[in-house]
């Protein structure tokens, strides 16, 4: 249900191999796109070391019209695009987002994963976070050691 997913999500953890995120206070903002109702507008914000806010805006669409609403294509610019899956969400507390790309005709695989939450404080819920990492392991094979915790300037 895309309408329930709209709004701000705070990044709590991300896979270590994500090179395009280098700041703190990372937020993903999802909004309806009135000019293209089939799309969800996405704005990612992060605070850089110099205090400036860095943003990138893109959109997500369903990969296939008849496919699940959680299986998306995402595009930020000509170079930054890919497959984007919402593995799990309860819409109110957490979301696990997964992306993978095959390179060199399938010889290499790049995997990215994020744990997002509606509230930054959710990462203090040890039982919730442990359960989310177990889901990630079960569904992707990625271990907790492959993640870093996102920094927040204030909580």
What does this protein structure show overall?
The structure is a single chain. The chain is mainly beta and 155 residues long. The protein has two helices and nine strands, in the order H-E-E-E-E-E-E-E-E-H-E. The protein has helices spanning 2-5, 126-140, and strands spanning 7-15, 24-32, 39-47, 53-62, 71-75, 81-89, 94-103, 108-117, 147-149. It is globular. The relative contact order is 0.21. The mean pLDDT is 86.
Quick structural overview:
With 155 residues, the chain is mostly beta strands. It has helices at residues 2-5, 126-140, and strands at 7-15, 24-32, 39-47, 53-62, 71-75, 81-89, 94-103, 108-117, 147-149.
Write the layout of secondary structure elements.
Elements: H1 2-5, E1 7-15, E2 24-32, E3 39-47, E4 53-62, E5 71-75, E6 81-89, E7 94-103, E8 108-117, H2 126-140, E9 147-149
Antiparallel strand pairs: 1-2, 1-8, 1-9, 2-3, 3-4, 4-5, 5-6, 6-7, 7-8
Q: What helical percentage do the residues reach?
A: 10-25%
Structural class: mainly beta
Instruction: Please give the oligomerization state of what you see.
Output: single chain
Radius of gyration: 15 Å
Weakly predicted, low-confidence segments: none
H/E element sequence = HEEEEEEEEHE
Mean pLDDT metric: 86
Question: What is the strand tally?
Answer: 9
Query: Strand-residue fraction?
Result: over 45%
Continuous helix count: 2
What is the global morphology? globular
Strand order of the largest sheet: 1-2-3-4-5-6-7-8
Describe the sheet with the most strands. Answer: 8 strands, antiparallel, barrel
Gap between N and C termini? 29 Å
């Amino acid at each position: 249900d895309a309408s329930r997913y709209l709004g701000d999500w705070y990044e709590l953890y991300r896979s270590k191999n994500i090179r395009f995120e280098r700041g703190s206070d990372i937020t993903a903002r999802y909004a309806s796109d009135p000019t293209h109702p089939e799309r969800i507008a996405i704005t990612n914000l992060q605070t850089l070391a110099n205090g400036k806010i860095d943003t990138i805006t893109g959109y997500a669409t369903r990969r296939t019209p008849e496919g699940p609403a959680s299986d998306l294509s995402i595009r930020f610019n000509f170079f930054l695009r890919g497959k984007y899956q919402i593995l799990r969400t309860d819409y109110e507390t957490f979301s696990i987002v997964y992306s993978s790309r095959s390179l060199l005709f399938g010889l290499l695989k790049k995997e990215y994963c994020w744990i997002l939450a509606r509230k930054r404080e959710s990462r203090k819920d040890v039982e919730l976070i442990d359960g989310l990492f177990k889901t990630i392991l079960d569904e992707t094979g990625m271990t907790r050691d492959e993640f870093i915790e996102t920094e927040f300037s204030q909580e």
